[in-house]
Structures are given as structure tokens and as C-alpha cells.
Amino acid sequence: MSSPAAGAVRVVRADKGSVLVVPEGGGEAVRAVLDRDGLAPLDDGRAVPTVGDWVLVDEADGSPHVRQVLTRSSALVRDSAGGTSREQVLAANVDIVLVVEHLDPDPDLGRVERLLTLAWRSGARPVVVLTKADLVPDAEAMTREVERAAIAVDVHPVSAATGDGLDPVRALLAPGVALVVVGPSGAGKSTLVNALAGRGVMATGDRRASDGRGRHTTTHRELVPLHGGAVLIDTPGIRGIGVVADADALDTTFADVAELVALCRFADCHHDGEPGCAVVAALESGDLDRRRYESWRKLVREAAYQARRADSHLAAQERARWKKVTQEYQRGMRGAGRPWR
Ligand SMILES: Nc1nc2c(ncn2[C@@H]2O[C@H](COP(=O)(O)OP(=O)(O)OP(=O)(O)O)[C@@H](O)[C@H]2O)c(=O)[nH]1
Ligand SMILES: [Mg+2]
Ligand SMILES: [Zn+2]
């Protein structure tokens, strides 16, 4: 995706209170300050600029300041328990989300489904990359198993160690395309970024010396411009990622389950033993995998919880707004010297 406006620059790294930006087509990175709580206007409302954002910058008091975050064509959003906004935009304006999962140890299919949902929700296209193919005897069979959990998504087994399987991933790197890698710590995201960049841009972790658990080699998100004109965003490993899911994203990730749900006799079927439930029937016949069913249930519950939480957040905002309006009205009446009651 090329720049959406003349003079826009791209955020390659976001820090507290400032961002690092580069002009389209490359050039020297410049640090630009964020005013007022680290927020900048985004059409309506305000936004914390994130990696991948296009922003307008101008000089004030001799230093560059972010003036505007341009409307995002896509946004990879995670649910973050802390903070005020509850949602964190991991990357903006990406075209492809590379869901990176290792083949050794065994891939976690539930995690792949979770990250695919995150990706579908973002508006970008997901592609699964299975790393460390050199460490397992039958990468092809494992790939087929992951493919069953990744409906309509390309799945590529690769080895950064031997270079095997990288060509189909390289083929995604068209000029102007932005990709982001997501996946657990130690999956080989930075190693993949380096392999695709053809140089050691990101530090990678060697975990052989320790058990490596909970160690994150990459600690910040960073946009890496590649020679061919594509850009690649590396991210730190995400543990227990909360997805910001919606029904559409879930129905896309779990298209097979959604098809069954449509066949249930009752429109409000809970798939909990009601008569005529196509989901339970598929479970019993073995057409639907119990693991996949549980994974789907879990994400549906999470999405419902988020929707309720967002609703109550909106309701609280609305109450606060009316309180303010009422107070202003009362103040105005008093100012006019009339009784306000
Ligand atoms: N054998 C083999 N090792 C790999 C491959 N890809 C990555 N590794 C190794 O896996 C370890 C972790 O790789 P990283 O690229 O640092 O993993 P990461 O996903 O960036 O991890 P975080 O930055 O913590 O999120 C390193 O020791 C890599 O050398 C691969 O294809 N084959
Ligand atoms: Mg890394
Ligand atoms: Zn049902």
C-alpha cells in the first residue's frame, strides 16, 4: 500500500510520546513528537499512532510534531486487558498477516485459529508460515493438518536454516505491499524477517543455551523496508493473545462450523443438546473435530464478552456526555440570572 496522501510519512516504530517516521520510498528516519497524551487526530476522534500508520508531520518550535494520523486501510487489533482503550492496534495499513507457527515443537492449532481470526478481523489477508521444517521428519503431513484448521488460507512450511520453502513467501513481497508477522515467541519471526530481507536486520534468539521459556528476543514492533519495495513489520512474540473478534471474522476462520450452525433447527440453537442441532450431529459423526469445536466455542464466548464490555463502555461514555450537557445547561441558566429549576 503506497502513501495515501502527499507528504505523508510512515511510522516505522512507535514509542511513548514520539514515533520514528520515514518518507515513502525510504530515506533517513526522523523522530516526531506526539502532543497531548501521545494522541493525534484521526479523522473523527484521536488515535495513538502505531507502526505502519501514515502520518502528517510539521515542524513546530524547531522539532517535528505528528499532526494527523491518516485513515487506516486495515488495523491489526488485539484485546489488551490493561489501559484505558482496552484495544491495542498492533499494526496499521498492512495487506498480509503472516501467521507464524513452529513445526517443532508441534504446532498449536488453537493458536493458529486465534491468530487467523485476528488477521481476518484486521481487513488484511492471512497466510500461515510453518517454521523449522528442517527439524521434523514429515513437514508435509503436519502442513496438511494445519491446512484443515486454516480454511481458504495458504499454508507454507519453511526452513530458514536451509532456505527450503521460502520462495512462495518471497512471492508475496510485491512492491508497495506491507506484511506483518505474528506468532509466539521463538517461532522464528525475526529469523524469517531476516531471511526475507536478505540481511540481519532483527536480532534473533538462540534458546539452546537455556530452556528459553518466556524469553522474548524482539521487544518492540518495527517496520523493515525491503529492497524490492515491500515492507515487513516484525513483532514481539505474543502469549495468550486476546483477539478482538467479531462474528464475521469468526465465521471466516470457522467457515465449516458456521455452515453447520446454519443447518441447526433453531435459529438460536446453543449447540448444547437441543433437537436438530447440526453441530452436535457433526461432532457425533466425527465430521467435526472436538478440538476445533472447543476452540470455536472459546472464541465465540470471548467475542460475546468483548461485545458486552464494549457496550457498557459506550453506555458509560453516553452517561458522562449527558451529565456534561446537563451541567452546562444548568450553568448557562444560572449565568442568565434565571432560576434553573
Ligand atoms: N532449525 C531452525 N531453527 C530456526 C528456524 N527459524 C528460527 N529458528 C531458530 O529459532 C530461534 C528463535 O528464532 P527468532 O527468530 O528469534 O524467534 P521470534 O519468533 O522472533 O521470537 P521473539 O522475538 O521472542 O518473538 C532462533 O534460535 C532461530 O535460529 C528454522 O527454520 N529452522
Ligand atoms: Mg523476534
Ligand atoms: Zn446447534
Briefly summarize what is shown.
The protein has helices at 109-122, 139-149, 167-170, 189-197, 247-253, 255-261, 278-285, 290-335; strands spanning 9-15, 18-23, 30-33, 40-41, 46-47, 54-60, 63-69, 75-79, 87-92, 96-102, 125-131, 155-157, 178-182, 222-225, 231-234, 242-243.
Structural notes for this entry:
InterPro entries: G_CP_dom, P-loop_NTPase, Ribosome_biogen_GTPase_RsgA, RsgA_GTPase_dom. Zn(2+) binds at residues 264, 269, 271, 277. With 341 residues, the protein is of the alpha/beta class. The chain has helices at 109-122, 139-149, 167-170, 189-197, 247-253, 255-261, 278-285, 290-335, and strands at residues 9-15, 18-23, 30-33, 40-41, 46-47, 54-60, 63-69, 75-79, 87-92, 96-102, 125-131, 155-157, 178-182, 222-225, 231-234, 242-243. It is 31% helix and 23% strand. Strands 12-11-10-13-15-14 form a 6-stranded mixed sheet, with helices on both faces. Strands 3-2-1-6-7 form a 5-stranded antiparallel sheet, with no helix packed on it. Strand 14 (222-225) and strand 15 (231-234) form a beta hairpin. Helix 1 (109-122) packs across helix 5, helix 1 crosses helix 8 and helix 5 (247-253) packs across helix 6 (255-261). Mean pLDDT is 88; it is low at 208-212. The chain binds guanosine-5'-triphosphate (GTP), magnesium ion (MG) and zinc ion (ZN).
* Helix vs. strand class: alpha/beta
Total strands: 16
Backbone CA Rg: 23 Å
Query: Which ions and ligands are bound to the chains?
Result: guanosine-5'-triphosphate, magnesium ion, zinc ion
Q: Give average pLDDT, whole number.
A: 88
Beta-strand proportion = 15-25%
- The helix-strand sequence is EEEEEEEEEEHEHEHEHEEEHHHH
> What count of helical segments does DSSP give?
8
